[in-house]
Each structure stands twice: as structure tokens, then as C-alpha cells.
Amino acid sequence: MNMDTRQGAGRHLILYDGVCGLCNRLVTEVLPRDPRGIFHFASLQSATSRSLLKMQGRNPDLLDYMYVVENYRTASPRLLDRARAALFVIAHLESPWRFLGIFRVLPTFLLNAVYSIVARNRYRMFGKLDHCLRPTAKYASRFVDA
């Protein structure tokens, strides 16, 4: 059965900084822990991301945020950013990451403050790549604009 025809496949789109070492690690952690394939991926540098962010009234040149476009193929997608986007992803993964969902009870301003500290330092701590992640053949269909 094709992944896109299974129930729930490709429902949500993760928009990530394609040259960020931390962001690429996030993607490589999500892929094997999302066996139903509910997440698709697009780098913030892609035409798809830029278009979606403009439609949502966001600055497509701002690369410090991770986004999730919930139900991105529908007429009414919902955009989540920063910590709430990360927690949304975590809530849908298989273990061992799911336990981090406990942080959902914290106020958004606090979560985003921590997120901002990590975002400001991510290149220094995790590196900056010369190019966006190239998916393996196994996962290529889950990347938009790959």
C-alpha cells in the first residue's frame, strides 16, 4: 500500500531550517519514530515553506523557528511554531521521545523562552551545514521540494 493512501499519512508538514545541524537531527529522529508517516518535511529554504509561511502572514526569511503545518493538505491548515510545534511532533512519535510531552502543561511564553535560547545558539552548538538534508530513498517521498 502506498504511504500516502494509508490513513493519516502525510497529514502534517514540519518546516525546519535545512542547514541547521540540530534541525536535521530532529528530522532524522522523527523519520523512524513515525512509522505511519503522518509527518512530511520541507526545509524553510524551500519554495513550499516560503509560500505556506507567506499565506499564514509569517516572514519566510526568519529561519529561527520550527513550524508544523497541521493538516497542511486541507482548506484550513493550522500553523504551530517554536515550542508548541516541537511538542506537537513529540506527542505523535513512538517512544522514547513521547515522555517529553509532559512539558505541554507549561505556559507557552516559558517554553518559547527556552526555545529562543536554543535557537540563538543552535549553529554554534550543533553546526551549520553547507546544504539541506538529502533524504534516503526510503524516506524521499516524505520530503516536499527535496
What do these coordinates show?
Helix content is 33%, strand content 12%. The chain is built from four helices and four strands, in the order E-H-E-H-E-E-H-H. The chain has helices at 21-30, 47-55, 82-91, 108-126; strands at 12-16, 39-43, 67-70, 78-81. Strands 2-1-3-4 form a four-stranded mixed β-sheet, with helices on one face. The longest helix has 19 residues, at 108-126.
List the defining traits of the structure above.
146 residues, alpha+beta, four-stranded mixed sheet, 4 helices, 4 strands, disordered N terminus
SSE order and pairing:
Blueprint: E1 12-16, H1 21-30, E2 39-43, H2 47-55, E3 67-70, E4 78-81, H3 82-91, H4 108-126
Parallel strand pairs: 1-2
Antiparallel strand pairs: 1-3, 3-4
How many helices?
4
Indicate the low-confidence ranges by residue numbers. Answer: 1-6
Rg over C-alpha atoms, rounded to the nearest angstrom: 15 Å
Series of H and E elements: EHEHEEHH
- The secondary-structure class comes to alpha+beta
**Helix proportion range:** 25-40%
Strand order of the largest sheet: 2-1-3-4
Q: Any idea how many domains?
A: 1
N-C termini distance = 22 Å
Describe the global form. Answer: globular
> Average pLDDT, to the nearest integer?
86
Q: How many DSSP E strands?
A: 4
Strand content: 5-15%
| Biggest beta sheet summary | 4 strands, mixed
